[in-house]
Amino acid sequence: MDAPEEPLPPVIYTMENKPIVTCAGDQNLFTSIYPTLSQQLPREPMEWRRSYGRAPKMIHLESNFVQFKEELLPKEGNKALLTFPFLHIYWTECCDTEVYKATVKDDLTKWQNVLKAYSSVDWLIVVVENDAKKKNKTNILPRTSIVDKIRNDFCNKQSDRCVVLSDPLKDSSRTQESWNAFLTKLRTLLLMSFTKNLGKFEDDMRTLREKRTEPGWSFCEYFMVQEELAFVFEMLQQFEDALVQYDELDALFSQYVVNFGAGDGANWLTFFCQPVKSWNGLILRKPIDMEKRELIQRQEATLLDLRSYLFSRQCTLLLFLQRPWEVAQRALELLHSCVQELKLLEVSVPPGALDCWVFLSCLEVLQRIEGCCDRAQIDSNIAHTVGLWSYATEKLKSLGYLCGLVSEKGPNSEDLNRTVDLLAGLGAERPETANTAQSPYKKLKEALSSVEAFEKHYLDLSHATIEMFTSIGRIRSAKLVGKDLAEFYMRKKSPQKAEMYLQGALKNYLAEGWALPITHTRKQLAECQKRLGQIENYLQTSSLLASDQHLTTDEREYFCREILSFASQQTNSPGHRVALPMHSFAQLRDLRFTPANAVVHVGGVLSVEITVCSQMPVPIHVEQIAIHVHFSIDKNNYRKTAEWLTKHKTANGVINFPAEASPFPTSQSSLPALELYEMFERSPSDNSLNTTGIICKNVHMLLRRQESGTSLEASSGLALEDGAHVLRCAGVTLQPGPNTIVFKTQAREPGTYTLRQLCASLGPVWFVLPHIYPLVQYDVYSQEPQLLVEPLADSLLAGIPQKVKFTVTTGHYTVKNGDSLQLSNIDAMLILCPEKNRAVIYSNAREKVSDALLRVQSSDKVTSISLPAAPTYHLIEFELEVLSLPSAPAAGGESTLLGVTEPHGKHKDKQKTGHGMATTDHKVSIDCPWSIYSTVIALTFSVPFRTTHSLLSSGTRKYVQVCVQNLSELDFQLSDSCLVDTHDSTDLRLIPLNTESEQCIHSRQAVFFVWELKWTQEPPPSLHCRFSIGFSPASEEQLSISLKPYTYEFQVENFFTLYNVRAEISPPPGTEHCRTGSLCSLDVTITRLSDLLEVDKDEALTESDEYFSTKLMYEVVDNSSNWAVCGKSSGVISMPVTAQAMHRVHMEVMPLFAGYLPLPDVRLFKYLPHHSAQSSQLDADSWIENDSLSVDKHVDDQLDSGSVKSRGSVHSAASSEHKGLPMPRLRALPPGQAFNSSAGTQVLVIPSKDDHVLEVSVT
């Protein structure tokens, strides 16, 4: 601190500014304490809690202590915070009451009155205690008396505003404690003052900003106010908060400029619209550029002045925050935005002035960053600074072109005058850079001084920028700088240096798909190649430009004439050819084969029609267009018959080729879709639209660099194929747009022909499509003659005429008059030929050629079909009818007719189809005139009917039922049904119950026929029957032959009724009806209806003195679970074999449900005991109770499976006790031998009175 007696120096806006604290009272006392105070105050941080919910911060407080003067107190309306005293301290070490009353009290009173006059409430009284003075004074009061008096006189309500500092110059614990308490109080009061005064200042500033819509509002005035706040934050070393203030000013000014461009301009903006007269660039080497600040304060600053000053302050703060790379980023944004703002404000700028300002500013920022960073940091952060290098290079190039430093003849007088004017606008070099050898000012002045100096500086900057872009992987940007460098070399007549850069830029544009830059760069490259004498490359580029739709017609025609001019020249080497890509000359759109399937036989003619779209702007006469074809013989050529090739070829014969990509290697389909969103910005005050635009959210994906290894424009070394197989078309004139060209060829050798290349020749210039894709092939085949026989319907039906199609493929064989097909006849199938049946001859492309009457001759063994004459590779088609006849009867009672089987047998040739129809195969041998071997074909016929029979009984009366099912899709008319006994028994009569002579049977339906059996004597043990019925299709068509009837043979055995079973249920005594849960009586009566017959003579028959008897087993089961059988439900009885013999069985049953319940089933079985010694000792019922009984397998299907399983499960546990004992067998009676006369009878069961839940069975 300077001596307190010295006058207060004027405020200088530097980084050394500190908050002001005034000192009144004993100045000598304060002077002695000041060194310690200045060191101790900033040592400990304090937490600063600010208003509006802002986060607290830890700050170190420093202060500028000055002598108290009334002039330092702020006047009303003064907004300067840097000169504002935040705290006032009064120092005294008075320890004598008399002295206090005489002088100190009056001095304190005057001091406080002055503070009150200026409404200053931030003050503190410090009483310093000194032990040495206390020892010299004997009549003084204790120290607390002086402090108490001061507190009573001046600190009635704020006693903490008076503090004691004990022996501040001593080194003791008491002194240290006193210092700590004093410093804590001082820091607290300072922070309270900061918070209060800064909050008031911010409120005033906010109020001022809200008045910005008023007419007299001034941005410059507001700028100074908010910058004052930034200075305070900077003074407190809160650089982030200070930077926020400048960023807010930056954003506010930018918004006003944007609004001005939209037509909503503020009056104060006119101060910044004055013409630019100085363009000396940014000044970043001073903490504060006072010159430009004063211009802003006086409202005389230009737009560049304001932007320069504002950025210099932001730069200073960013460097304090150690964020130099953000300086580079902000600088690049600033330079671009300034250019746009000058245009929006329509500020008058001399040509080249803005380029100078940008160039100087770029170098100034780069040198400022280099000054605070070492080389390693700079090299590792090139990505942040390379944009400034690139922008400086671009502006230096613009200045070179503007000042005539790139022209062939050098600058003229006008260029020199312009250069002088630009250098004059730079003004004198600033003192801070005057001693710097490579200052931006010196570099620009030197670069504009001569052509050689400009070339040196421009090349150095360009190469350095390219190297930096390359080192960080920004190849795209490096190529764009290289393109500018190529333009410079072209101006300098150095095309050999320019070519590399132009190729690189073109490669980059092609990879990313920039159409207009591609066109522009190709024009430059064409000029470069023409100067270098690169004829082939020049012709290739010219063809691309001649087809470029982005050029004018005159430009396209010029490049087209360049190609035609070279093509018309006579070259020294006649065989020399220049091969160029086809896609720039013409594009292959589609290809059409005739025949359409691209399959032709040897000797046939194939036509290939192509459509090419000429890209040239004028008609072009082409000497010839050729298609080079590759011939190959397939190893599996035996498979490639005409039929096989037809199935594997396109049907329409047209092959479309994808539209030629753009010249861009990256297909548009592989790029992600554009994610575009509308953007609107509205004014917060009146919601009016300020700006609108479109934002692409995935620009980082779309602009991703697509790098490839080879040059996209370099000639790919196109190779012309030379071979024997070439399709040519000479003398073709290609008009602009689509053109159709037809090639014809005659097939000579079988194999596969692949179209490889398409070439168009104009003298020595050949345009080549090296690969035709997708793959295009045509096939030439040599086919053996073939015969194909196939039914016209999905399946052939037996018994009715069916149509069969014969297809003769002649192949390489010529069918002559007299050639015939010899079919071997078989007994089971007839071959029919309708009258006036004709054979049709087709070409290989299925075009009808002719037809002829078909002649068919039949003998006993052979049917001969005469073929009409037909040339090679044609088809002969005709239709015949076949009829499958019944086969001879098979021995052993098996099937006899039409593949119908009996229950006990199956024909070996019969199979079931998917519809359940039986099938029969007939094999026919055919001798063809072109082969010495016979061809055997198999025809499969399906029997349309399925027939079943059943025996029905009513007591002793017997009936035979025959069911005929139609399994086919046709409807049939049935007639003359008949059932006969094949043994011609005179005692048996079959009386039909169907009286209708004709019946219609529809598809998937069945018809039943019933006959009653009557006999006069004892019935035979078996009955052999044959069922026959006539049938014909229900359609109205008349058949050419009469059809044989459909027959079905079957056998019925043991059909006479031997036993009548009758069951009866009685309610409990004393009740009228059965009730649920009550026991009821079940009486079963088994009656023998006949005497001993032949069928009774088996193992169960036993003979006694008076009569024969047989063993029967009965079983009572209820599968519907309506009854519960109580006690034994089965048993074995001995039944006399005499007529009207009767046996009764009584048991008890319990109904489980209410309602009309059907009676339980009563079943009878033959009981066949095993003849052994042990078996005779066992009671018959014990077999039932203790053993499982076996039932003969051949009648197992006649038994109820549930009852058999029931017996087995109940008695299986006891079977182990009799292991090794003989087991009797059960055999079910045939269906006709036992008649249940109680079948269908129902008993009424009423619910019991105690039931709460009623369950009723309804049957």
Automatic annotation (TrEMBL):
Top-rank taxon, per record: Eukaryota
One of the GO biological process terms: early endosome to Golgi transport
Residue ranges of domain TRAPPC10/Trs130 N-terminal in the record: 16-328
Keywords for this protein: Golgi apparatus, Transport
Main location: Golgi
Pfam families: Foie-gras_1 (PF11817), Ig_TRAPPC10 (PF23604), TRAPPC10 (PF12584), TRAPPC10_1st (PF23036)
Region called Disordered, residue ranges: 899-918, 1198-1223
Subcellular location: Golgi apparatus
Domain named Trafficking protein particle complex subunit: residues: 456-546
This protein's GO CC annotations: cytosol; TRAPPII protein complex
Ranges where the TRAPPC10 Ig-like domain occurs: 792-884
Residue ranges of every copy of the TRAPPC10/Trs130 C-terminal domain listed in the record: 1021-1246
PANTHER family cross-referenced by the UniProt entry: EPILEPSY HOLOPROSENCEPHALY CANDIDATE 1/TMEM1, TRAFFICKING PROTEIN PARTICLE COMPLEX SUBUNIT 10
Protein name: Trafficking protein particle complex subunit 10
